[in-house]
Amino acid sequence: MATERYSRHYALKGFGASGQQKLQDARVLVVGAGGLGCPALQFLAAAGVGSLGIIDHDRIELSNLQRQLLYDSEDIGLAKATVAATKLRRLNPEVSIQAYVEQIHAKNAAQYLQDYDLVLDCTDNFAARYLLCDACKLLDKPLIFGAIYQYEGQLAVFNVADAQGQKTTYRHLFPHPPGPLEAPDCNTAGVLGVLPGIIGTMQATEAIKLLAGIGTLLSNTLMTINILDNSTLTLDIPRAMPLEGNYPSSLAALKDFDYISFCGMPNAIQEISPQQLIQEWRDPDHLLIDLRNAEEMPRLPVDHLPIPLATLAAQVEKINRSRVIFICQTGKRSLAAAQFLQQQYPGRYQIVHLAGGMDALQPYLHN
Description:
Elements: H1 7-10, H2 16-24, E1 27-31, H3 37-47, E2 51-55, H4 80-91, E3 96-100, H5 109-113, E4 118-121, H6 126-139, E5 143-149, E6 152-158, H7 170-173, H8 186-189, H9 194-212, E7 221-226, E8 231-236, H10 251-256, H11 259-262, E9 270-272, H12 274-280, E10 286-290, E11 305-306, E12 323-327, H13 332-344, E13 350-354, H14 357-365
Parallel strand pairs: 1-2, 1-4, 2-3, 4-5, 9-13, 10-11, 10-12, 12-13
Antiparallel strand pairs: 5-6, 6-7, 7-8
Helix pairs in contact: 3-4, 3-9
């Protein structure tokens, strides 16, 4: 362990060589290498955490670069986990880094989590958050949670006992997941680029404090930060509140738990490929609905109905055909819209969504 590299830690009162050794001995898994994961990973690697795992199945897109500062323009199209691992090794070759270019799900979660001491939830969807909550509880692993929305961030430390010996989980904070249209992602709502940097850095801070045994953790506590007015709010999570609803009670049950359905995300949404869409999009029996905001490009070159996702519930009466094709930029909003319509009006519509969105369709528009 290089003395000069960590000299500021050695000099730090209450931390010193013992704190640095605890970091060196630790194994930390970061799930998600996007807006939250990038800053968290950078600071954990720089701090000298001995072993880092990175799980992410996504590839780098141009729109990521506004906030995911581990990546640059030359990385577009490459796997986030692989690129992150390569750059972090350059930052600190003393850290052992393992990249998993894979989506975490119920059947593989325990396999990955069991080898690590601590987990950071840097994901961007509720199915993954509830999965990590349950897996960490069953494996008795600390979980550091972060989330962002527009100008506001959230931070909490779960499954770590407070002074009274009590532990809480994400399910104590949010017993029930929101509906498909109640929690839009960054594509819909936007996010100020510095916000995930702040929250991801704070996740790394809580991780370092926990591993080194210093300071006071946000255990059983939710902190919210609004960067528009610099306000913060810290709330205690009720410790005695029993868990509600359906959740797995064992690792065997975890593997069979359907988090997609639990979060109101039915699996049976039909996808359409860009090639299929081009063949069908002039069919008068189909209604194409573009869920993007007015400023998003490129525009669809055929007749369609523009309904931004945030206004879909209020404009359902405009859907006047039985076959509906939802389109957005990447496919996430179109899937959410399809799920919403399927839930609210079962059997009324034949619903499909464009897999990959306009990003996948665009290369075919120039042929």
